[in-house]
Design a protein that fits this description.
Elements (H helix, E strand, L loop, with lengths): L23 E2 L8 E5 L4 E5 L4 E10 H7 L22 H4 L5 E4 L9 H7 L5 E4 L1 H5 L1 H16 L1 E9 L7 E2 L3 E2 L3 E7 L6 E7 L7 E3 L1 H8 L1 E2 L6 H5 L10 E6 L5 E3 L3 H28 L1
Antiparallel strand pairs: 1-13, 2-3, 3-4, 4-7, 5-6, 7-10, 8-9, 10-11, 11-12, 14-15
Helix pairs in contact: 1-5
């Protein structure tokens, strides 16, 4: 177990799933060497074949997103000791791989420091194209957070897709997804749908129904939903790169300034956060 990073525990994770039901595996080829893991704010089904999650499930709420915005991000990727040694990804697998360690349950969704630390487990990570991870995918994650703030509660299931005759592997161990998905369900309206994104530079996204997602992934991500909800994709927000600040007075979110201004603002923000972390660590060392 990962005492220093927070652990995946044997507990009831049903509140993280729509109507308490886990996603169901339809493609029997995926049903091998699977380990369910339950964390404070998300649940994972880990594949020892891929050495990645098959999915990460969350219940995003307005209150949780608000709490998450007040927590500084501290990167602390770590191996997941709750998994069998031969089935887990290792930090060294990603070294010089050319891929980012892409969260499935995003660190930016985590409402506590403990939950954020848990999100850096490699059991919650896939090899992700850097341009996608830092661009389009980050915009999708933020757009989903803002949608959950407007709607109140969303159930979210995120995961990789492995398709085609030959799937790449980094370090000969960890499979590289061909696509990524993020599925949403609004329990208040009954609407559902999913973003589907190629794991490649210059990727575009498309909105798909849960029926189409099932064909692409071999997963029924929200098995209790009626057929009509699975057949039609809800209107998903266009992914946009936002600042982390609050909305403008008229309710519309701030947009980041492009190019040099954006980089300067980002650099100042990161420097401020680093100084805050140093001050906090110094105070902890003294007291």
């Amino acid at each position: 177990m990962l005492a220093s990073h927070g652990t995946a525990k044997a507990r009831d994770c049903s509140a993280l799933f729509a109507e308490g039901r886990r996603p169901e595996i339809i493609n029997v080829k995926l049903d091998q060497r699977l380990v369910p893991l339950c964390y404070d704010a998300f649940a994972v089904l880990h594949s020892g074949v891929a050495r990645t999650p098959l999915y990460a499930a969350e219940r995003l709420t307005r209150e949780g997103v608000s709490a998450a915005r007040g927590i500084d991000r501290i990167d602390a990727f770590h191996d997941e000791d709750a998994l069998p040694p031969d089935d887990r990804a290792l930090l060294e697998d990603y070294v010089r791989s050319g891929f980012d360690r892409g969260h499935m349950a995003p660190a930016g969704d985590m409402p506590t420091e403990a939950a954020q630390a848990q999100s850096f487990s490699l059991a919650n990570v896939v090899p992700q194209d850097r341009a996608v991870n830092r661009g389009l995918w980050a915009a999708i994650e933020e757009s989903v957070r803002r949608l959950s703030t407007r709607r109140g509660t969303l159930f979210v299931v995120t995961g990789p897709v492995y398709s085609g005759g030959s799937v790449r592997a980094i370090n000969g161990r960890v499979l590289v997804p061909t696509q990524l998905f993020k599925a949403l369900y609004d329990p208040a309206t009954g609407e559902a749908g999913a973003y589907l994104v190629p794991n490649a530079d210059d990727a575009s996204w498309r909105a798909v129904s849960l029926d189409v997602l099932r064909q692409e992934t071999g997963l029924d991500v929200f098995p209790t939903l009626p057929a009509a909800a699975k057949a039609t994709a809800m209107a998903l927000p266009e992914p946009r790169v936002y600042s982390r600040g609050p909305a403008d007075g008229d309710g519309s979110p701030h947009r980041r300034r492009p190019d040099a201004d954006s980089f300067e603002a980002w650099a100042k923000q990161e420097l401020h956060r680093a100084l805050r972390r140093l001050w906090r660590d110094l105070m902890r060392a003294i007291f």
